[in-house]
Amino acid sequence: RLASSHKPRSDVRDCYKLLELEEGCSLEEVRSSYRSLAKKYHPDSSAGTADPAAFIRVEEAYRAVLSHVAARQHPAEEGEEEEDQFKAKSLQHRHYLSFEGVGIGTPSQREKQYMQFRVDRATEQVLEYRQQRLGGCCAGTDLLRAKDLRESKKVRITQAVERLVEDLIQESMAKGDFDNLSGKGKPLRKFSDAPHIDPMTHNLNRILIDNGYQPEWILLQKEIRETIERLREGAVAARRKLGEPMSPPEREQWGRVCEQFMQDIRKLNKRVDNFNLVVPILSRQLVHFSPEREIVRAQKSYEAL
């Protein structure tokens, strides 16, 4: 307020000129000029001359001229009251512009429309939140129901397998399939070599071993070794049969033998892959056999004969 009432005279003259007034005008003329220019430059007016920057300059000029006229006429109380009224109007104007662009009409009408807009928006948010909660609850219930079904199915399968095994054991006992087992009627040997291993598991493994059971990976390993030895012997025998030197027809025959040999090696390598999947010890895994190296080996074995 002090700054506006002690502006340099040149600035006050510019303010009068901006408001299109002459010095010595009355307060009513100042108000009338301000209202006219505000309608002309107001940002929300539909006039083509709307200009926010010009409206701000008009507002500042109105403040300065209002203070100057009030100081010139010495109605201190009236000037303060007029400025307070202007501030109140300015606050209402700023509030009018802060309705997020909602509504049309006067500030009071826009305020009512904005309040209704906020109520509608809050209602939509509450409904959306409730729908999400209900959807989450339904999804959780469906998951629990599906899990219970899987668990019950697993239990039924386990019980069915146990009943089947028990029936097979009883049937074998009735037929006398267990009568020729070694150690029949004798107590099981106690397992004390490794106390950290379950005695029941050890005794079961011992029974299987004593009755000739072998794990799958041991059988596969034995089969792979026997197959590669048979293929090597067959390749050497075929080469010996062709003799040395080989005629062109014999070379063609040897080529066919080598081609068949390579196919057999590829099939054997698939068994090696299966073996590596089931072998429990990593160091026991096998590498693939190279068909080319095996053919060279067969040729060298023939030459060494």
TrEMBL record:
Signal sequence interval, chain numbering: none
SMART domains in alphabetical order: DnaJ
Gene3D superfamilies: DnaJ domain
Domain J: 14-87
PANTHER family hit by this protein: DNAJ HOMOLOG SUBFAMILY C MEMBER 28, OS08G0560600 PROTEIN
Record-given protein name: DJC28 protein
Organism: Serilophus lunatus (silver-breasted broadbill)
Gene it is expressed from: Dnajc28
